[in-house]
Queue: 4 jobs
Job 1
Amino acid sequence: MQIEDIKSPVDYLIYSKNEIHGYSRAIGKLFDLSTSYISDAEKAYKEGKKVIWSRTNGWEVPLAYSCGIIPVAFSEMGRLSDFETMRIGEEYYQFPPETCSMVKCTVGQWHKRKSKSINRILGAGVACEPFNLALELMKQAGYDVHTVDVIYRAPGMKGDELENLVEFFIRQIYDTVEWLTGSRKIDEDKLKQEIQRKNQLISKVRKILELRIGNPFYMRSLPAIFLLTGLNAGYFGKPEEYEKVLDLLIEELENAPVNEEDLKRVIPLVWVGNAGQEFGVFEVIDQADGALLGFRGYPFNICREDIPPVEALARHVLGNQDAGASVYVQQVLEKEAQKVNARGLILYGYLGCSYSTIAREMWGDHFRKQGIPSINLEGTFQIGPPSGQILTRIKAFTEMLA
């Protein structure tokens, strides 16, 4: 397959796996885990295993696995959508056309799978109002939905205020376990094991990202996105296989020869935001010698292992960059930009997502004052080629940095 033959994200995955990364068994296996994720999870459900739809936030993953349940990121199911699926959200569920395409795609997929697939959804009110509405609509459609109350840690919150919030979220964890299992009893030994597994996988992903800085073109932009997606999205439903991929990728990167010319010509970039279906964006970045070496989704904190596991999970949530105020994300971006010596930031969000628009403007302004340029892009979530305008802007931005 040649780049000219690419018509869809699936085509691009095949192209990236075979033509760009044909030398890497690890990256090939990473793509395979991603492409089989949803179908294998639904197969496991039909075989009688306990499976739920969940977010890609992270805290749900060790909790669900400790209960013997496979958490499946519903955003990855939404990625299978096309315009017809999105139209279900607009016409059947009456979402306005300007609503975020990710919400409409996910709702459309749930609608098509109703009574045929995984029928339990774990959501959280911290997501956004359109998604809150989507969860309510899915309840009415017959899904078993549990929504965790909003968790928001304001800037500077500490002391008694923070401790009260920790206690509040601990109660939310027990409520969630009761929904998952029918009992409020938590197997703390299993939860601790899952927290240890999560921490171990985080350390390996960090190692890979550090190795990429010294060999930026061995693993290009798209598989780097999938690396982090796997960490947050329940390890693609296959924790052991995902860890084997990480181990193999570390081995490959540690032994791969480094081209000194690559280090001279590479343009280090920080990717800020979501990863849509417009994989051509990543191809343009790569062709212009750009490399996504820093990420908003960098796993900068781990769960503590020196305190009871339920408390550790709560404190991890409230110490995470998604705990509430956008300033927490900004702090991560500052560290990432400094670590990779970034020459620019790519701020990417979905059309109609008011939730992230203001934050992206704030981050862009903050880094402009520090002398680091950025580009603010809005793309789509459903399957389809990226617009020519987005590709032109990305190319111009990357060439400007060169």
Note: The longest strand covers residues 267-273.
Job 2
Amino acid sequence: MTRILPQTRSAAVNPLKSSQPLGAALAFLGVSSAIPLFHGSQGCTSFALVLLVRHFKEVIPLQTTAMDEVATILGGMGHLEEAILNLKTRTNPKLIGICTTALVETRSEDFARDLSNIKMLRARELAGTEIVLANTPDFDGAIEEGWARAVTAMIQRITLRGEQARQSKKIAILPGWNLTVADIEHLRETVESFGLKAVILPDLSGSLDGTVPDDRWVPTSYGGTTVKDIQELGTAMQCIAIGEHMRRPAEVLQGLTGVPYALFQSLTGLTDTDRFVSLLSSVSGASAPARIRRRRSQLQDALLDGHFHLSGKKIAIAAEPDQLYQLATFFTGMGAEIAAAVTTTGTSKILEKVPAEQVQVGDLGDLEALAAGADLLVTHSHGRQAAERLGIPLMRAGFPIFDRLGSQHRLTTLYQGTRDLIFDVANIFQARQHAPTPQSLDPFRNREVPDDSRPPTFSRH
């Protein structure tokens, strides 16, 4: 079993993880006409906003309660109420997602009670807007936990309780935070190819896919899952959760509505995708479409082609637990070896299944110390300096990726995404190879030939 090594540093020198509130905000951005609201200082919000804008290259509707010194000491209910009313008046969102920060969490305030009082006192002004609270202190967890807590909170708050009439062709999908916009879009297209309807929560492919609204400025998210879709999740025939961190939201949905769920810890690779396609065939009662079978055949060919480039390579990865598992199983499935594995938190059960001797909870400084001698570094854009110092190529994955365009449109899941991932990695290795030269192939090519015209010399001895 994989050994999980606890964090040894008292401070992160080169941070790997992003905060819980940022993960929750990202999840709320996958809902149509939504605004994430950071309950904390302006600085907390600004830092998260910069990362989101640099990663997606989009306008991000992220707001703050702007806690000051007095509110930090005496309590922030007034700031929270004012922020909610201002957002309602100016933008009229369908959803306001509140993400708490360490600043307010350290006071141990009763946010649920405060929010309940605000809703009761301002019921008329807030009519038509759902307000969801996700407790996401910065000092605990990371982006993965924040995303999961926000999804759980939306289901608990919005989804109608009780057994409901099921729609036989409807599937609820709870994607992990590490799925890109392209992954989610491809996921929907695959489900629909079986004649099924997919309701995805959150759906970043509808809100952060790079489309531009028609000649107007939209102060909220302008696509994604609707509030009505969230309310009616209980009418789905099946729920599919992707990633171990999405187990809790799936369990909550099952407990509230009775909808059964299937958990996929990864959708990258032939085996996991086969299982996913088999489930869709079972639910729909139809065999896999011809184009799905063709993509599977293409992946098989890519596995054969890519094996020669990846087999025996040493890979160093730093990522959130579920993405670490996704990438590590992909590389080992291609014959590579995980030389170093670093993650953000040690609480996820998926870490025990990571195909590595040990997983270090730490930062990018730990990755740099462990990655010496590796053939490839895999982490987000903040790992570029470590890769340069080590002289190792960097494959960018995760969040944030701000020094490359199109990261959200890269496929990494199902047959086509796995195929593309193989090509991306193999091309990195091929670009590092040096073409053979005549000198390298023939070591005697430039040997010195003795000159026979010169008379021999003799020694006196």
Note: The chain is about 40% helix and 15% strand.
Job 3
Amino acid sequence: MKGFEIGSHVGEKSLDHRDFWPLYKVCEELGAVLFIHPWDMHMWDGRLSKYWMPWLVGMPSETAQAICSVLMGNVLVEFPRLRFCFAHGGGSYPIISGRVAHGYRVRPDLCATNCGTAPDQLNNLIWTDSLVHDPTALDLLIATIGKEHVVLGTDYPFPLGELEVGKVVEDYKSFDSNDKERLLWGNAVQMLKLDENSLYSVSF
């Protein structure tokens, strides 16, 4: 087993809660990937009850909150070999990454309480999928975490999934063929620590 999926929180406990650290320690030792998918967005009522906003706005926000918890909760400093992969291109985190880093520096009394490393210095330790629906958003994601840490995402079989799998990557004009191969499958091989040669072997 190369990894498994968990939610973005458990009850009132975000991903930085120390109750989860034994899990992180075992995952780091085993080399298992933790894929984080948002859920239970707490935004079902009021102004966000219309227009499918829990999914369109709530899920990206929930994912960004989960990433911030991991980065500012000292998780990746304590477990530097642990691989988190966040769904939907990291949600809204790429667009707020600069804001989060700025907040960490100007209000350390509120933001730097658990981690002495600024969040933007840890961005290249997280992974995300590529499901952003827009080449411009993919450009921002790559600038935030690096093109080596983006793997193909589909969100299949849900309506917000990519209708043509890999189309955003294929349409990304700044990529050469090698870059496209990395995002379409090569990065996932690295993230999951698969034997690339075995992928070409078929037994009958």
Note: The longest strand covers residues 3-7.
Job 4
Amino acid sequence: MDLPTLPDRPHLAEVVPSVLAVLGVPRFENTLDLPPATGACVLLVDGLGWELLEDHAADAPVLSSLKRSSLRVGYPATTVAGLAAIGTGLASGEHGMTGYTFEMPGVGVLNALRWRRHPGGPDLTGQLAPEDVQPLPTTFSTAADAGVHACVVSEAQFAQSPLTRAVQRGSRYVGVHALGDLAASVLSVLRESPGFCYAYHSQLDLMGHLYGPGSPAWRQQLRQVDRLVEALVEGLPAGRMLLVVADHGMVTVDGTAVDLDAMPGLTGGVREIGGEVRARHVYTVPGAEGDVLAAWRAALGEHAWVAGREEAIAAGWFGPRVSDRVRPRIGDVVAAARDGFGMLRRQAEPMESALVGQHGSVTTAEQLVPLAISCR
């Protein structure tokens, strides 16, 4: 099977290194050719795909009026990998946060958002240290070590989460509760402490999952996001820069979706299934990889790209380098959905399988996100 290559665009992982280069932090390079600034905020709007913004530009007039280009987010196109790209400046093959769920050798499949054994297993906080799952220095800690103030403005509930520790350690965390204090906190940080501020907004992604990207509820939330961007643009202190990005786009799963839990022909030789609806990791028993690969290719047909681990790595899905630490986290077989296809697990993942909007795969609708810039 010929596998698609990812879009020829700069990677989301280049955003923060480029910002830190502008701010004078050694060893980073401004590969995005950002303008000079004394401080910057990177606002990540979860789920804001480039194609979705283009299709609904009228609902986001301020954001759409900014200087914009597109980035690719890498594989899988999901929040855990995207936040890790921001937090390390690396693609998933190096930071190792290879999906919503992925196997940690000796532990089992980890749900990286909930830090629990997946599916439905015990909390792993006391057993699995976030610093062991993602041991590389973060962009925040590197900035702080260089004397640049590094701050995260995000939901208060995430302040002490294992994922925060894994990909955002080294920052000062400002917990917020709604769009109002998100905007106020960002502007306060930029006024008081010139440096690097990262801000995160999650609700557009939630509306897309629940009602579908482009639905009335999603469009109303996009309008609220645009008001947030407007407030930040108008309030930017002199010399500061705002960059608006996203971690992935989203598609509506259609009637071609299948329930993997109801397909016994796909379980032979399989130890574990990870990933998510549009991007699956399949972990096999020793010696069964070839049989599992053939069975999944035959069953999913033209609905998905199904590859062996080494094929997916060679196609560049996980970035230019995949470390030995990360390689076992990638499925022995990797399946990426095409079009509106989904690989549900209604018994094992009832909540996730019920969602209308999904993401994770290599399609441009999921891979491309905006990079919108405003300078004062």
Note: Residues 314 and 320 are 9 Å apart (CA to CA).
